[in-house]
Design goal:
With 471 residues, the chain is mainly α. It has two domains: 249 residues, Up-down Bundle (Growth Hormone, Chain: A); 211 residues, MFS general substrate transporter like domains (Growth Hormone, Chain: A, Up-down Bundle). The protein is built from 15 helices and four strands. The strands form two sheets. The chain has a two-stranded antiparallel sheet with strand order 1-4. A two-stranded antiparallel ribbon has the order 2-3. Helix 1 runs antiparallel to helix 6, helix 4 packs across helix 12 and helix 5 packs across helix 11. The longest helix has 37 residues. The protein is globular, with a radius of gyration of 23 Å.
Length: 471
Amino acid sequence: MSQSASQKRIDPETISSNDKVRPFGFRDKIGYMFGDFGNDFFFILVSSFLMVYYTDIYGISAAFVGVLFLVARLWDAIADVTWGRFIDTRKPSKHGKFKPWIFRMSFPLVISGVLMFVHIPGMSNGFYEAYAFVTYILWGTLYSTVNIPYGSMASVITNDPIERTSLSTYRTMGAMLASLIINAVGPVLIFADNKASADGFLMAAVIFGILSYACYLACYKFTTERIVLEENESKAKLGQTIKGLLKNKPLISILGASLIFMMSTMLIGSVNVYLFKDYFSNTAALSIVGIIQSLAVFIAIPLVKPLVNKFGKKETTSIGMLLAAVVYIFLFFLPNLSTTQYIALAAIGMFGYAFFNTMIWAFVTDVIDYHELLTGLREDGTVYSFYSFARKVGQAIAGGIGGIAITAIGYEAGREVQTEGTLEGIYALATIVPGVIYLLIFLLLVFLYPLTKQRMKQLSIDLTEQRKNRR
């Protein structure tokens, strides 16, 4: 184990000001929930409606928007790592290492989000393309300056693996609440007479921006960083850090599982539109599916902590993914289901993968601890940003998967009724493909991810001993 970066462990019950720190509790969980609540007011608004805004309000071609999104995701990946590394080279303030950056950067982030939805009438197409490019890239860069410290902060709020699972659960709850609000209220604000409204988009951006900033302030106010490490003299070299990351088997395996899961989620999101529009001829069911996906997460949330406490994160998540795999593969062999029957069975699969979706951030805090044990370096921001970097690259690559897959099965836009072969292809994309992917994630977790419940207990003991020796 390398310990070239001389570090001093500070008692987690005190901070640099030597004031007594309140114990970890419900206030921290609510505060951490507000962080992703704030993140997703804009993130989901952008993910769901920005393309419509660019094409219908600015008149930009969908092809240009696709290129913009691809470039932005790759740039965001670089920004994530750069910002994570920057934070890890700064000395913590009396309020902690990560919280101050959420406080400093959240207001500029919200302002940049509103600027994306400003429409100046009568400008040229080139102006709108340039304005979209600059404001979207700016928003993405500022998003990194808030999201990276927010995600990294979970590892220093508590060192209890079970309570970290609670933080991950509450983070997911915040995202789901934002999703419900955006999907329920957003269309009412941004569409008028079934058409995109420039004034409606701006109003939505301002309203959600105010709510977002209020959530960030609540996150800053209610959370407390307890695990504090101060650098004495030397800083870890980037090469040494990367070497440690590449040796971090838990990080690499959970990264692979997360990337595959994300690609499956994007594929299902794209294919479901065609599944219910063309295969089931029932687009109204899409809203029901969206609600059920959120409900599946909310049903799983109260079960997460007791299950993890008894069985462990790896074990609980693995069973959930196996359940999802079995359900979707089973659906493939039942092609003559009604819409209601299909949704009822798919809901069981959604419940299964909801556990992975809920606990993924807790996995990340565990691999941050493993990185410290492996290298002797506490680099929360760098490890989290490396994870975020890979996800952003995956998003960039996976962005076109849905369109490519739909084209590959022979879908013809504008055709009244698709061919039988195309309809069968759509059903296969919606069932057997995610089923196989979920099975692969199950195998990755079982055979490659090494941090079982018992290993996590030992990791905590070993890390405590190592920190004592570094004092």
